[in-house]
Write a structure and sequence with these properties.
The complex is a heterotrimer of chains A (371), B (324) and C (529). Chain A is built from 17 helices and no strands. Chain A is 75% helix and 0% strand. Chain A is an all-alpha fold and 371 residues long. The relative contact order of chain A is 0.20. In chain A, helix 5 packs antiparallel against helix 6 and helix 5 crosses helix 14. Among the domains of chain C are: 60 residues, no CATH class; 188 residues, Rossmann fold, CATH 3.40.50.300. In chain C, helix 9 packs across helix 18 and helix 14 crosses helix 15. The chains are: A mainly alpha (371), B mainly alpha (324), C alpha/beta (529).
Chain lengths: 371, 324, 529
């Protein structure tokens, strides 16, 4: 009903924007609380994120991860599923990528290897999402709780594998051997060098193109395929999906597997790209950031790109900020992330009635003026 | 033989210490979830409580003030959860997640700004901490074989918060099953509309439930930073809130069984430390990570309905609104 | 007049309930219009009306669920304001809801005392509650085991718990909302005995029902509601079922549907002994058999909630067949051959859902997406990998043009269409393929007058092309004017059948209230006799 009163541009544009602003406003208070100037902090963050080539590289490198995990959360969300397990699915997915790279890197260059690496990562990530999905669809256990549990199980499993199995013999740090240079994805610096342009070095690599391709694919999936049609129908109205003859259980499982596979692509950016090996805790919270990204981006690929860029900038800018202002660390970014989830997610309905009232009053006034 | 007993006693002793925050958080979750509010924010409330306790204890030198601060901060976060989920009918999982992430970021940010020790708070000593209490006669019976050791080492010699934690279980049981408040609490988690038509305010009842959850998480946090340890360390809750949630589910949302689940999960953790590098007969060395993952695996298996059935409160996760 | 009476003779003689000019709107819908109602003390007052007559809204206002837009509530001669259930309880009003407000996991005692505990200690509260419950049980003949788990009790006993709950709170006015819908005939009789006992002890009872027989059997006075207004109030002794049925249904201007007499041919859809149990094990469909022939429109009449929804669900593949079988265009569907809704469509079945908001469309979708629901896998809408969105849009635009859906914009969100246009789109989607069998639930619910005629014409022309149509409607008028043959459902069973030409509102109304002629009495409950 309320859809009738508010036009779309307010619903998907103005309200999320206000919520994000509220989150930033509160973040500003936190900065004040620790005795620093919010405006100065914003300045440093912007400089850090966009002020110089290396900074931009880092920003986009973080953005890449967030696009993957944001898409993962969004796809599940469209089917009405809340996948908190992106972190674990990305972690296990990276294992798949790493194993594939390590078994083929001696006789394949990166461009031949990448389809295999993507397939292996996707398969591992999907498998990790499959179990909670199956339990939700067929045994009635809630996907939220099981995916939380699977994050911890993934973490324990990976520690075990890295410490006992994958560890490079003769070393002490829990990480796999480094993948052969030829099999590692070219960094953006290498790419630009081909065209004779010299840019600063950063972990940014061609996985960002994969991220953008995934955005297009997800957009196609959701709005241009039968499966996407079924996914969205289940999310909006499961009864209508049954009415339309859709196998809701199977669709739920498939959706979660796609979600897990998308999260796993973090492994391409990190394991096959930036790090060149599997190492402990390499996902570093990107799975959770994906939730903030998806909520803020309204579960749409375009929104997710924008939100990922914002969070990428926050991560990189936060690093710069902590360098310049010693009393602030990158953990401030985590605070902002929490606030974005709070305002764009949990409190998303808070301001709507007010906006509705304001809009109607404004609208009524305009009507009267016209008459 | 006596060696074995000593090892057993010290493992059980460790179990008690490790289980304490789990028990407090599980009871906290029980209040919230029995009222129909999903609480995945146990972790965040505990972490925020831990930081508040250590910070205030460091500044004032009083453990009790630290405990009070922990409870206060934790209740504030619980009220935030209530504001989002009860007043504004927001998604309870999203809200809990926001609280966890917020706590994780805020504690370190404020810690660094205020104490300049990389997110840690200053080391506490003296009255700023809860120290172990020797129960009466503990020294006298220490030499009695077995039973003396059990009394002196296992039962006596813990700090006040451990005893408080174990006391919260009967208190929770009493509140939930023996009082008017408990009757209404259980009712509102099953069928809020029935509670509403009986003339009871669903909102106020649920707010009271989340406040109880905040209180207990605060104690758990204080235990971590000013009783078990001597300062706040970043991320020191380390997933304990989630284990407590798992224990609550594993204990089927009931105090006694949740306590047993907490002790089981605590025992597994204590055993992990104990078995580090020890090869067991027949099995060989059990990977520590497998032991760590066991609580989660067990909970998933339970949820899947393979061992018994965990039936959640019927109205859990659904915001209540009057309109039909 | 009555209020003068009150002041002169004191509060003791004033009516238990006196509602004056109650108005309540939900958006543009007026659910209650200037409703006046007087319930005498110590009487059983029936309120009868069709679905949507405004009975439930009125009771919700009285029990504090909704606030009235205007009007006064007088209880026992005093003007009161009731903002919540708490206020209602405090004024001595108790309510037994259609869906019980009980905690299944609690004991009877706990349910009865919930919200009215004597002490903060449960033990003490239970002790005093047990004594009080004992007293009430004896006084009113309401025996229930106080320590039984409520969820394990039979429905009739659960209802007894609800009544005890109200009495425990000191209710002197008891509202019962459709109390017999889920009861067996024996349980109904027991309920009536209880209500008589309550009346004897001075409790005023308001009985909301759509069953004429119950009104006649138990009430002292009856008020008929229709379209949100009070139509009439009668002494029960001075009226009869026939008059009430007529008042309830009203003498509306007959809708004229231009159609030739039907020429029924071969059977295209047959239901054989369909029985469907819900999760609680209650039979929602009870041994239903029917046939729909090519070239006829079969109407299913009945008060909503008597199995029509379940019948449509089973006949369309939304719900799986549990017992019995369906023969659709020569294909047998039973529990060994379960087909889903898409498979049913492939057997040339169209299904216009009863509730387009719950089932028949997705209001968040655009019109073009709604236009292919159930046909999303058809080759004409799909390329090799991607959906052919252009084809989908074009298809929707065609439907919109053919069926005059306005605004003619396939990209508009479904929620932004009026009810009539939403329904036209749903019907267009299902009719366009000329299905051999068409199921239509509530063809014109929430549809404006102009669209009604159009929708009826479409259904008739599908029939005239030699197809079978089954219409479910709670609008008697519609069933009588649109259909060729009518069956009446009551509590999951078929309780009567007649040709539409022989049907009138009174006959159907009696059947719907399960107070029909002799032939249906035999198969029906013992209560009726």
């Amino acid at each position: 009903m309320s859809n009738k009163t508010l036009p779309t541009w307010i619903d998907v544009g103005v309200i999320p924007l206000i919520n994000v602003c509220l989150a930033f406003l509160v973040s500003g208070f936190v900065i004040l609380l620790i005795g620093e100037s919010p405006l100065e902090a914003v300045q440093w963050m912007i400089t850090g994120a966009f002020g110089y080539a290396e900074g931009i590289g880092y920003t986009l490198y973080y953005t890449t991860n967030f696009i993957f995990t944001g898409l993962a959360v969004a796809v599940a969300f469209h089917a009405g599923l809340f996948n908190i397990g992106g972190e674990g699915q990305a972690y296990i997915g990276g294992l798949g990528v790493g194993l594939m790279c390590m078994s083929l890197d001696s006789f394949m260059p990166w461009w031949a290897l990448i389809p295999f690496a993507i397939a292996a990562g996707a398969a591992f990530g999907a498998a990790w999402a499959f179990i909670p999905a199956y339990l939700q669809a067929y045994r009635g256990s809630h996907v939220v709780i099981t995916t939380i549990m699977f994050n911890f199980i993934a973490s324990a499993l990976m520690v075990y594998l890295l410490v006992n199995v994958l560890i490079e013999p003769g070393t002490m740090s829990p990480q796999s051997r480094v993948i052969a240079d030829a099999a590692i994805l070219p960094s953006m610096r290498d790419v630009f060098a081909v065209f004779g342009i010299n840019i600063a070095n950063s972990p940014l690599n061609i996985a960002i193109f994969l991220a953008l391709i995934c955005c297009v694919l997800v957009w196609l999936l959701l709005w241009h395929t039968r499966l996407g049609y079924a996914i969205r129908m289940i999310g909006f109205n499961e009864q209508a999906a049954v009415y339309s003859g859709i196998n809701t259980r199977r669709t739920i499982v498939i959706t979660m597997c796609i979600s897990g596979a998308l999260a796993a692509m973090v492994g391409i950016n990190e394991v096959m790209g930036a790090q060149g090996r599997v190492l402990l805790d390499y996902v570093a919270g990107a799975g959770f950031t994906g939730i903030a990204v998806s909520l803020m981006g309204r579960n749409h690929p375009v929104g997710i790109i924008i939100a990922s860029l914002l969070f990428g900038a926050l991560y990189q800018g936060g690093a710069e900020l902590s360098f310049e202002v010693p009393s602030i660390t990158r953990d401030l970014v985590v605070v902002i992330q929490g606030l974005v989830i709070l305002f764009c997610g949990a409190l998303s309905l808070m301001i709507k009635p007010t906006i509705e009232k304001l809009f109607l009053r404004f609208f009524a006034a305009k009507e009267r003026a016209n008459v | 033989m006596s060696d074995f007993i000593l090892i057993a006693i010290s493992t059980l002793d460790a179990t008690i210490r490790v289980s304490t925050p789990l028990i407090l958080c599980a009871m906290a979750g029980l209040f919230s979830e029995r009222s129909g509010i999903v609480d995945i924010g146990l972790e965040g409330k505990m972490l925020a409580g831990a930081f508040a306790a250590a910070a205030i204890a460091a500044v004032t030198g009083s453990a009790w003030l630290g405990l009070g601060a922990a409870i206060g901060v934790s209740i504030c976060m619980a009220l935030l959860h209530g504001f989002a989920c009860i007043t504004h009918k927001g998604n309870q999982v999203v809200s809990g997640l926001a609280i966890n992430i917020l706590a994780s970021g805020l504690t370190v940010t404020l810690g660094i700004a205020w104490f300049h020790q990389g997110g840690q708070t200053p080391l506490l000593s003296g009255d700023a901490r809860f120290f172990s209490i020797d129960l009466p006669g503990a020294l006298a019976v220490a030499d009695v074989p077995v039973l003396g050791a059990i009394y002196t080492q296992l039962i006596s010699g813990h700090n006040a918060l451990v005893y408080i934690a174990f006391m919260t279980v009967p208190v929770t049981w009493w509140l939930v099953y023996q009082t008017r408040f408990g009757l209404r609490l259980r009712a509102v988690g099953e069928n809020p509309q029935a509670v509403d038509t009986a003339g009871i305010s669903v909102f106020w009842l649920r707010y009271r439930a989340v406040i109880c959850a905040g209180l207990l998480c605060g104690i758990a946090g204080a235990y971590l930073s000013i009783a078990q340890n001597a300062s706040f360390i970043r991320e020191m809750s380390a997933g304990k809130g989630y284990i407590a949630l798992a224990a609550l589910i594993f204990g089927k949302w009931r105090p006694k069984t949740a306590l047993l689940a907490c002790l089981l999960f605590g025992f597994l953790e204590a055993l992990t430390v104990r078995l580090e590098g020890v090869a067991l007969p027949l099995i060989g060395e059990v990977p520590a990570q497998l032991m760590q993952a066991t609580p989660y695996i067990l909970t998933v298996v339970l949820l899947a309905g393979f061992i018994g059935k965990a039936i959640a409160p019927k109205a859990i996760g659904i915001p209540y609104s009057k309109e039909r | 007049m009555l209020s003068q009476d009150n002041t002169s003779q004191g509060a003791a003689r004033s009516p238990a309930i006196d509602l004056r000019k109650i108005n309540k709107s939900f958006g543009p819908v007026k659910a209650n219009k200037d409703v006046d109602l007087i319930v005498a003390k110590g009487s059983i007052h029936g309120i009868i009306g069709e679905n949507g007559a405004g009975k439930s809204t009125l009771m919700s206002i009285l029990y504090g669920f909704y606030a009235a837009d205007s009007g006064e509530i007088w209880v026992n001669g005093k003007l009161t304001s009731i903002h919540s259930s708490k206020d209602a309880i405090a004024t001595g009003i108790g309510m037994v809801h259609q869906h019980f407000m009980l905690i299944d996991t609690f004991t009877v005692l706990e349910n009865v005392m919930l919200g009215a505990e004597q002490s903060s200690s449960l033990q003490q509260s239970k002790k005093s509650a047990r004594a009080e419950l004992q007293r009430l049980s004896e006084e009113f003949g309401l025996a229930v085991d106080p320590d039984a788990i409520t969820g394990d009790l039979a429905v009739g006993l659960q209802q007894r718990v609800e009544i005890l709950k109200a009495l425990y709170r000191g209710a002197e006015i008891l509202i019962l909302d459709e109390p017999t819908g889920v009861l067996t005939p024996q349980e109904v009789q027991q309920l009536f005995d209880i209500l008589s006992a309550l009346r004897e002890r001075g409790v005023s009872v308001m009985l909301i029902t759509h069953k004429l027989q119950e009104i006649i059997a138990i009430t002292d006075e009856v008020t008929v509601m229709r379209g949100g207004t009070m139509v009439a109030t009668r002494e029960t002794a001075e009226t009869n079922k026939e008059e009430l049925a007529e008042l309830m249904v009203g003498r509306k201007v007959l809708l004229r549907v231009d159609k030739e007499p039907a020429k029924p041919q071969q059977v295209l859809l047959e239901a054989k002994n369909l029985t469907l149990l819900d999760s609680a094990g209650i039979a929602r469909l009870d041994d239903v058999s029917l046939q729909v022939r090519a070239g006829e429109i079969l109407g299913i009449a009945g008060v909503s909630g008597n199995g029509q929804t379940e019948l449509l669900d089973v006949l369309s593949g939304v719900a799986a067949v549990q017992q019995g079988s369906i023969v659709l265009n020569g294909v047998t569907i039973d529990k060994d051959n379960v087909l889903n809704a898409k498979d049913f469509r492939h057997l040339s079945l169209g299904h216009v859902a009863e509730d387009r908001h719950k089932q028949g469309m997705v209001t968040e979708f655009s019109a073009r997406e709604c236009a292919i629901m159930g046909f999303q896998d058809e080759p004409e809408f799909n390329g090799r990998l991607l959906m052919d969105n252009a084809a989908v849009t074009e298809h929707c635009a065609n439907l919109m043009q053919q069926f005059d859906v306005r605004p003619n914009n396939p990209h508009l969100k479904a929620a932004n269409f009026s009810g009539g246009n939403q329904q036209k789109l749903c019907i267009a989607r299902e009719i366009e393929r000329q299905p051999k069998v068409l199921l239509v639930g509530q063809p014109t619910r929430g549809v404006d007058i102009g669209a009604i005629e159009f929708i009826h014409q479409q259904i008739v022309s599908l029939r005239d092309a030699g197809n079978a149509v089954l219409v479910v409607s709670v609008e008697l008028e519609e069933v009588m004017s649109l259909c060729d043959r009518i069956v009446v459902m009551f509590e999951g069973r078929i309780v009567g059948e007649m040709a539409a030409v022989n049907a009138d509102a009174q006959k159907l109304g009696l059947l719907m209230g399960n107070a029909g002629g002799d032939d249906s009495d035999n198969s029906a409950t013992g209560v009726v006799s």
